[in-house]
C-alpha cells in the first residue's frame, strides 16, 4: 500500500541552537516543507531582529539541497511592546507569537506573569495585525495537580481571553485532554485551533512508568489518561479543520534525559509521519490524513499549500536505537522499535508524481 500526500508542514517544532541545531534540523527538513519554530532558546527570541538572526542560523544548518522554510515566532514576555508586533508582521519572517506561562516548560522562566495586564496592549495589536498567539496551555500554580493544569488553564485563562478578544487567532498547542478538544471545537473556526503531537495520539500516561521510569516518554504537557488520548484521536481523525500537525519534537542529549532531573521533551522528527499514519490507519481514516498533515495548518495561517509531494509506503522499518553526534547521543521516539509506514522523499517521490500524472493523462 502507498499513500501520496501534499508535503506536510510542522506547526510546532523545537530546533534548539548550536550543535544540537546542526544535528536535528536535517531530520525535520527531510519530511516537512515548513515549520513553526519555537523561540524558547537561551536567551529567548523576543525581538524580530533576533528571529531574523536565528532564522539565518537554521538555514545554514540545512542540507544544501533543502527547500525547508522556517517560520519564526517571538517569545512573549511582560515587556513585549505593540511596536514589536508591527515590526514582526512587516518582517515577512515572523508568523506568530508564543505564550509560555512563566515556569511552565523548558526555558520558560522568562515567560508571561501578567497576561491580562502587562500583555493586553500587545494582544490587541496582534488582533490588528492578524498575528496568531500560540499557547502553551498550562497553569503553573504549584497547588494545581500536574494532570489538571491544562483544564485549569482553559477555564481561567483561555476562556476569558477568547471572550475578551474574540478576533484574536489562537492555537492551543500540543493538546492533551478531552477538555481541550471540547474547548477548541466550541470556538469559531478560523480563530481557534490546536496542534496535536504523535506522542499524545499514541501514548497514555502508563507509558511513563511501564517497565520502569521511561524518561524518553516524558514531555510537557505530560501524557494523560487513556480516555483523553481516545478523545484526541477521535478529534483529529474526524476531518475537522480545527486540528493540525505539530510534532513538538524537542531534542535533548541522552544524558540530559537520563539523569536525576531529566529534561522534558521527545525527539520525534524522524518518526512523526510514520506515527501519524499509524494512528489514522488504525482509526480507519487514512482518507483524512492529508488534510491534517498538509491542509488545515496552511489554511489557518493564511498560507498556500505546499506543491511538493511525499509518499508513504507500507513497509516495515526499524528505528535506530540512538543517533550519535560529536556532542553525544539523541534517543528518538520509539527507539529500536519497528514501524509500518515509511516516508519516501526526494527523487523517488518525484518519480512517483510523474508516473501518476502520466497515468492521469492517459486515463
Automatic annotation (TrEMBL):
Annotated metabolic or biological route of this protein: Pyrimidine metabolism; UMP biosynthesis via de novo pathway; (S)-dihydroorotate from bicarbonate: step 3/3
- The protein depicted here goes by the name Dihydroorotase, mitochondrial
NCBIfam families from the xrefs? pyrC_dimer (TIGR00856)
InterPro entries documented for this protein: Amidohydro-rel, DHOdimr, Dihydroorotase_CS, Metal_Hydrolase
Q: Which gene encodes it?
A: LOC107911712
List the catalysed reactions: (S)-dihydroorotate + H2O = N-carbamoyl-L-aspartate + H(+)
- Keyword DNA damage appears in the UniProt entry: no
- Which HAMAP family does the entry link to? PyrC_classII
Which CDD domains does the entry mention?
A: DHOase
